[in-house]
Every structure is written in structure tokens, then in C-alpha cells.
Amino acid sequence: MPALTPPLADAAPATERPRFVHQGIAFGCDYNPEQWDPSVWREDVALMREAGVDLVAVNIFGWAWLQGPDGDVDFRALDEVIELLHAAGIRVNLGTGTSSPPPWLTARHPEILPVMADGTTRYPGGRQAWCPSSPVFRRYALALVDAVARRYGDHPAVALWHVSNELGCHNARCHCDESTRAFRRWLREQHGTIDELNRAWGTSFWSQRYTDWDEVLTPRLTVSSRNPGQVLDFHRFASDALLEHHRAEAEVIRRHSALPVTTNFMVTAHIRDLDYWSWAPEMDVVANDHYLDHRLGAPRTELAFAADLTRGLASGEPWLLMEHSTGAVNWQPVNLAKEPGQMLRNSLAHVARGADAVCFFQWRASLQGSEKFHSALVPHAGPDSALWREVTELGAAVARLDEVQGTRVASDVAVLFAWEAWWANDAENRPTHALDYLDHVHAVYGALHDLGVATDVVRPGSDLSDYRLVVVPGLHLVRDADARTVDDAVAAGAHALITFGSGVVDEHDRVRPGGYPGAWRDLLGIRVEEFAPVLPGTALALDSGAGASLWAERMRVTDATTVVDRFADGPAAGLPAITRRTEAAGPGSGDAWYLGTLLDPADLRAFAARIVDAAGVRREPGASADVEITRRVGDGRSYRFIVNHGTDGVTIDARGAELVTGTVVDGRIEVPAGAVRVVREEGAA
Predict the structure, then answer these.
(1) 3-state helix, strand, coil in the chain (%, to 5)
(2) CB–CB of 502/478 below 8 Å?
(3) With contact defined as beta carbons under 8 Å apart, do 614 and 495 qualify?
(4) Is the pLDDT of residue 640 over 80?
């Protein structure tokens, strides 16, 4: 058994990033053989072949399986598993095994344990019991990565490297002394001097001015609300600290392997601690874990948004769905099982929006541990079950879509989204706690989704020149340079929809004086003098008869072209609620629309349709809240995905070859309730 040795200090020079190469759409899962007697492994591999599984993630939580406190690494069991998979033609997504330290490590080095904002330590017994800034943890983790990468760096079964697992899911923000020192170093790099830090955080307020770096702490819990600038910077630091850990593991892997390296993002409604816009360029291929969250009002729409956002992180390139579930998860208040056919619909909805892999957590349902009631490809009931039959049907359907691999989703609409705007908007003190940033984004995105409008979710500051419509939902924090890209798009002829709460603060969470929406006052030709939110359950009406809730504001027009609608009642009665300003100075005829309230869903959909049509954006005929219709295109091919979540069948105009059922479509296609159809369209450009 080889002993662990510290990796070399310097990484190999950077080269062109390797690409993930796979034949067709990958169909796979996480596999945790350490939970099972070796006698089960051969049965597992045989069942994987039966289901059509061709990509398996192993060694995700393998640290305690591989290494004991003596420092030696025993690869014999992992060798056997990888050889079994390889012999079956199943490719390996190989984890580094570092996601959770074994108890012997935390017992020997309790200083690596994370500390919460209240100063209490979190202990072993769960997962991710480590501080991202701990040099001790880093040293042990990188030594393990070095051993694993040396062992399997050129193994023919390995197709992809998987750094750690869901980095920051539980331990993103540590407040220990090591994290405090690392935070101070990060602040010095960002701000340069203590005077600049004071200016950025507005420390003149409440006598918070610092005179020395050693006075600065992480934003631990206080007897009052905390400094929002400090909290915002700590979010940024925490994201960067974990990204640095990813980089460190990836650098070790690349010394021994030319294969692509990634880690699984968590682009989902309940995880907000990592700024994936800064992470994505570090990935050889973008991968995401997504689970339906039934605590939300519209979990299917959130799935679509998460998939579009993941595609945005991949710069429009195909991406990998690294994890989702066959049925219930185990961490929601009520863990709902999926209806028959829902697994297929959810899976192919991700593929429709750019995924070139459909993978699950996990292969075989655990018999013990915290996730023993989390669904899996092989349930506790075994392969003689309805769920297993659905799994094999899904595997066959994914195989029939192999030709879709590599195509992209095309869109004329950009939706601006930023994690740092999320952090700033959802601060401790804000105009209303009744509406979070993501709720605001989901409401606007949902209207576009239900209209059958393809959307790219992009980072503020992105090139917007190819879009007919730019949507800015509640982007509370925005940098001046990023705001100007919207101005430029409108000047060049695009339409823009900016909603309330946008443009209010700069990158330091400093309010732009002179009236809201700050960064876009001139573009919109309006000036909001006061926010006037209303209590939950309070209905608002507009002059047009449209309904609204939660938000009103006292606005006046400066040079907006049209007041589209006014508040009929509430704290802003008689004042403008929706405006439009036509850009006359530039070469195009772009319009800037402003929405100063949260319209009721049907009215928001109708308003969005008006703007979409004015911008000349294509809507997919037949699409609705229950019927998702999206296209993937490339190399002269076009594939139309029709996912019917409803209880009634639908008929859609189409012509070509339907891939799921293998039938010819000559003009119209019937899509039964709960079914998915994918048409390779004739006459694609």
C-alpha cells in the first residue's frame, strides 16, 4: 500500500482545456460500492448494463475507505470496482474522495472543524466537517488527491475527474480564527488600505471605523443587524476560498492526467453561497446537481430556470446533469415521490435546455445513513419494481437521443442574474422580507417560460448585442460598467425590461443617490422617490384592471415616452406603475420598459407577451405553463423537445422524425398527457 506524500508545490503550466468526450448523451449515476459487500458489485454492474448506464461516479466519499490514520492508501477495492466497470464498457467519473474527512483526521486535527457565525463549532458525524481556509485540511486533502491521480491518471476507464463533491453545500462560511486571518488577507487584496475598506463598508455608520486590519473580524452574530458591506464581502470571500480549494485539487490532478476536471455545482433554489460566474471558467466542463424543491410554488419552472442558468455558466455549451433524483429526496419537510413518467419528463427537460448527460444520485438506495430514504436507480424494493422499469425505459430513451449531443439552445432573450445581487438584496435590513430576490427572478422568468420563450440566463456585463430583449429582474446590485451594457443594447435597437429594485446599489452595496432605479434612471426616464411595499395579502390594482401585490413605489416620469399603467389604489395611487421609453438617440429603435410592481401571474404573463411581441421575439406555438417546447440546434440540425406536464394530450404542428417513439411526423404530432416527444425537424437551417 503506497504511503501518501505531499504533492509538488508548483502546478504544471496551463494548456488548452481538455474536453469531455462521450459517445452520445451520457446516462449515469453516483456509485458508492464502499456501502456494499463486494458480492453485490457484480450484480450492480450487470444491472447497470441492463439499464443502459454508461457513466458512473465513484470515490465521491471514499476517503475513509481508502486511507487510515497510518497514512497508507489501500487501492485494492477501488481497483476492483473500476476494473469491473471498465470490463462492462462503463466509463468512470472519478472523485478525489476529499469531500468529507474521516473521523481519524478530525480527531487528530480538531482545528480543521468549521465554526459558525455564533462562534460554535460543527463536529464530525455529518459531512463536510472542514474549514475551507484550513491549511491542515488542504495538506491532507491534496496528498490524497495526489495518490489517487497518480494511481488512475492514465487509466482507460476514467473519462472525467470529479473534485470533492458539492463544495460549500454545508461549510461555505466558516468563522474560525484561520478563516478570519484568510478574510483579512482577502480584504487587503481587494481594498488595498484600511481607509478604502472603511469607505467601501461605510463604517462611519454606528462608529464602526477600523484603524488596523487586526480589528476586522468575519461577520459573526451581533446584538443588532450586521454591517451589510461586511456581510457582502464575506460572501465573496467564502466563494473565493472554496474556489481556491477546487483550484488546488485540480492542479494536482493535472500533473498526472490530461483528462477534463470538473466539480458538481448546485444551481438550485436553496443554495446561494457560491458565485458560480467566477467558478465556471475554471471548469473543463460545467456540471450541475439539481433536485425539485417542493417548498417552492412552481418547482418545474425552477428546474427550467436552473437548467438555463447552468447553460449560461457553460457559455451556451452543453453541460452535464451530474445528479438528480429518480423520486423522493430525504431533506425536505415532505419528500414527495415522483409520479409515473415524471422522471422521464424531468430528465429530458434538462436535456432540452442543454444537458448532454443525465445522471442520478445514486445507483443503489442506501440501507443506512442519513440518505437511506433518498431515492435511487435501484430502490430498496430492488429491480422487481415499477421504478426500476421506469429507469430502464429512461435509459433506452436517452440512448435514442444520442444524436442530439453537442447541439445548443438558441435564444433572442437574455435574463440578467447575479449571485452577489442575491446576497445584497436579501440582506438583514431591506424594504420588505416578503419577496426574496430569487422569488422575484422566478416570477419574471416564469412568465417568459409559460409563453414558450427561450431564454439565456447571463451574467451582468455580458455581451448583449445578439439579443432582441434584455430582462433585468430585481437586479439590486450592479456595477456601473455592467449597467451600461444594457444601455448600449437599447441604443443598438434591443428592448429592455427592468423591474423594481434594480440598479439601486453599487458593488459596495452603496445606494446611488438621486432616486431609484439608480443606474438606469436615465435609460428609463423615470425617478422613483420612495419605495412603498405593502403587507402580504394586500391586493393592489392598476388602472388597466391588472392585479398586483407586495410592492408599490412613488414614481414620477422625467422623459419616459409613455406611462403604460398607473396604480389605482394603495400607497402610490394615481402614480405611474409601468412606463416605456423609446430610445431615439441610437441607430436602432429600442425601448426601455419599467415595471414598478409585482403583477399577478396572469397579468405578468400578458405584460411579458406584449414586450416579447414588441421586441420581435419568437414564441413557441402550443407552449404553456404545462407544455414546455424548446429547441436544440447545430450543424444544420434542429430538435424540438415537447414535454407535456399536463393532464390532457396536446397536438403540435411538426414535421420530421420523432426520436422517443421512432415514428415519422407528417404535419402534426400528438403528445399524450405526461409524455415527451423529440422531433428531428425537417428543413433545419
Answers:
(1) 35, 20, 45
(2) yes
(3) yes
(4) yes
List, for residues 491-520, the tens digit of each pLDDT value: 999 999 999 999 999 999 999 999 999 999
- Beta-carbon contacts of 7 under 8 Å, excluding residues fewer than 6 positions away, are 142, 143, 145, 146, 252, 255
Nearest CA-CA partner of 326 in 361, 355, 294, 351? 361
Q: Nearest 10 degrees: CA dihedral of 198, 199, 203, 208?
A: 20
Q: Please identify which of the residues 178, 249, 302, 323 carries the catalytic annotation.
A: 323
Residues 398 and 436 in one domain: no
Domain membership of residue 655 as a residue range: 627-681
Residues listed for the chain: 685
Count CA within 13 A, CB hemisphere, residue 625.
Answer: 10
Which residue, of 614, 643, 671, is where some domain finishes? Answer: 614
Q: What total of structural domains would you count in the chain?
A: 3
| Domain assignment of residue 336, yes or no | yes
What CATH number corresponds to the domain at position 561? 3.40.50.880
Cell 484550513 identifies what position? 134
Chain centroid to CA 162: 17
Q: Is residue 222 part of a domain?
A: no
CA distance 10 to 585: 54
- Taking the C-alpha atoms of residue 622 and residue 436, their distance in angstroms, rounded to an integer, is 31
Q: Largest Cα–Cα distance of the chain, in whole Å?
A: 79
589 lies in the same domain as 631: no
Nearest to 438 by CA among 451, 425, 452, 456: 425
- For residue 452, give the 3-state DSSP assignment: coil
Do residue 365 and residue 448 come from a single domain?
A: no
> Which H helix or E strand runs over 232?
helix 228-256
Asked if 515 and 633 sit in the same domain, the reply is no
Q: Which three cell numbers stand for residue 498?
A: 427592468
Report yes or no: 527 and 515 within 8 Å, Cβ to Cβ.
Answer: yes
Segment holding 159, helix H or strand E:
strand 158-162
Residue 627 per-residue DSSP state: E
Is 681 catalytic? The answer is no
Can you list the positions of beta strands (E) in 393-487? 413-416, 455-458, 469-472
**Whole-number pLDDT of residue 17:** 87
Q: Domain containing 636 — which CATH number? A: 2.60.40.1180
pLDDT at 586: 52
Cell of 420: 452577489
| Catalytic one of 166, 302, 583, 628 | 166
Examine residue 331 and state whether it is found in any structural domain, yes or no. Answer: yes
Amino acid at 369: G
Match 423615470 to its residue by C-alpha cell.
Answer: 526
Q: Is 682 assigned a catalytic role?
A: no
Tell me the residue ranges of DSSP E strands in 53-128.
55-58, 91-95
Q: Which residue has the cell 453516483?
A: 30
**Per residue in 423-463, pLDDT tens?**
999 999 999 999 999 999 999 999 999 999 999 999 999 99
What's the one-letter identity of residue 124?
P
Q: Which helix (H) or strand (E) holds 648?
A: none
Clarify whether residues 677 and 590 are in a common domain: no
Q: Are residues 663 and 605 in the same domain?
A: no
